[in-house]
Amino acid sequence: MSLYQNADELKTLVLGKTTDYKSEYAPELLQGVPRALNREDLDLDGELPFYGEDVWYGYELSWLEPGGKPKVAVAEFRFSCNSVNLVESKSFKLYLNSLNQSRFADSAAVEKTLTEDLTKVAQGDVTVTLFDVDDCPPLAISAIDAVKIDDIDLTIDGFEFDREILKTACADTSDIVEEKLVSHLLKSNCLITNQPDWGSVYISYKGPAINHKVLLSYIISFRMHNEFHEQCVERIYTDIMEFCQCQSLTVFARYTRRGGLDINPYRSSENNTAPRNRTLRQ
After folding, report:
1. Which residue pairs from 10-14 have beta carbons closer than 8 angstroms and sit at least 24 positions apart in sequence?
2. Whether residue 74 is found in the same domain as residue 168
3. Is 197 among the residues known to form the active site?
4. Of 190, 232, 244, 246, catalytic
């Protein structure tokens, strides 16, 4: 799987390599990964079959006021799925740390700098919002408005990714339903380092009823799969849409944070933005 794993575009990334931390503003640290790499593998050419964005939260953002007093904030970053590149997470962390000993006039100047730098590397629409650490509504824990499918009894014989599992997901295509489902058993591995990525995946759809046991088996098959967060979500979306012929579909993964960042890819047949909430695991 992951035919693009040895692509030349990935060989220059700092991910998986020993690096030095810079504590003064260094936008050159940011690195982008072409979204086209995995989309070629998914046969996504031309106009995308979904809307969406990648929502990141940064918990380790700090800078200096003009007089030298430190400031801290929580940052929300929203990247359009139509951007040319996704931002590589380790380079993002190194970049954010480069602000630690850098002086800015105020938080608005920090937002402006972040927006400009991230837009340049992503080559697409980016929105940055800073929140006070004591008043960040998007990080309020929300009740789960979905049916959890994790308690289904399963026997798992292998942990290799297998999209063909979904072939039996919709036995009766005449039974049209609307459902909101969630599984907290999503786990994949970083494409470069093989480090585990843990997440909860929310799936909302209208269409032929999806067999929950089959869907859970499919989600668990990502357990040893190597791919970036955004790419996993696009794979889940395109596989479900292909095999289940949904009239509408939304896939939203909330990944646990690593290195002070969490990544939350959102893909949908509807032109909506990702909801602002979080789960206990984050």
Report:
1. 10/37, 10/191, 10/192, 13/88, 13/90, 13/91, 13/192, 14/88, 14/90, 14/91, 14/94
2. no
3. yes
4. 190
